[in-house]
Amino acid sequence: MARNAPTIDAYGDGGFRLAGERREGSVLILGDEAQPWPVASLADLTVESLSPVLQAGRAEVEFLLLGVGVRNAQPPREVREVLRAAGIGLEFMDTPAAARLYNVLTAEGRRLAAALIAV
Q1: In-domain check, residue 1
Q2: Within a 10 A sphere around the Cβ of 9, how many other Cβ atoms?
């Protein structure tokens, strides 16, 4: 896990504040980098949208923390199966809960990626 993982300071109004910087829309955090993530709803989630996580692989990512939006819902079966086959765990929950948990887990030094759908 990168030591400089950005903290999630706030979420809502269609974006996030990461390490003091406002980011509009959904975000994908991998290691110490956060990038815009073109997934506006769970219906938009595809294996392709998670390609950076899959490319990083098990050596860099123990599991993916997925914030699925306002309400918790199960991600598509194909996404779950591809992550399982890659040896990457999956934890999914509503985005507010995922944002709070992300900060706790990164403080513990866990090797995770976070894919967070903006609320």
Answers
A1: no
A2: 14
